[in-house]
Structure formats: structure tokens, C-alpha cells
Design brief:
Elements lengths: L5 E7 L6 H9 L7 E4 L17 E5 L8 H4 L3 E3 L1 H9 L1 E7 L1
Parallel strand pairs: 1-2, 1-5, 2-3, 3-4
């Protein structure tokens, strides 16, 4: 992973039944200078239109198998070492559930 600084990193780990609402909430506060990491059920977001203005959307390689290949094209697949770098290069980190 290339070093890149983000204002904020939003770690989205919402359950499937809350996912649509969580994406809507996140869309109202995330900017194009921020990054979003989708974990577990959040990977199942069928449409990322709500947060399409966020240029850096990440997903763990361990979770990638549960999403359709077409959706994965919009995300950057990372491993746990990359996640550690994301934390290091983000000024603020928020967990969104």
C-alpha cells in the first residue's frame, strides 16, 4: 500500500439490517479527503452510491469473498498490514456501527 494521508478513516462495521442507514449517515459526514474501511456485513453494501464521493474505499481481503466481483472493482482490497498503515496515516479514526 502506498503511503497516503487521510483526514479521517471511517471503519464501517454495521450489521446487514442497519447497513443502509449507516451508509446514509456516513455520506453526510465523510468527504473526498477521507477513507472508508468496510468490515464484515458492511461488505455486503450492494450500492456504494451514498458514499461514491469518497475516493478511498477499502475492504479486507478476508472479507472480499462475500461480495460480488463487480462491486469489488470500486474498492481497494487490503490485508491486515495495510489496515495498520491506514490507521497510521489517518488523522482521526472513527468506528461506525
Amino acid at each position: 500500500m502506498k503511503e497516503k494521508k487521510f483526514n479521517q478513516l471511517f471503519i464501517l462495521q454495521a450489521s446487514y439490517h442497519r447497513l443502509e442507514q449507516a451508509l446514509f449517515e456516513l455520506a453526510n459526514i465523510a468527504t473526498d479527503q477521507d477513507a472508508v474501511l468496510l468490515l464484515e456485513d458492511a461488505v455486503l453494501a450492494l450500492s456504494l452510491d451514498a458514499i461514491s464521493h469518497v475516493k478511498s474505499i477499502f475492504i479486507l481481503s478476508a472479507d472480499a469473498h462475500i461480495q460480488h466481483e463487480k462491486i469489488l472493482e470500486k474498492m481497494k482490497i487490503i490485508d491486515y498490514a495495510d489496515w495498520a498503515e491506514l490507521l497510521q496515516y489517518s488523522q482521526k479514526v472513527h468506528t461506525w456501527q
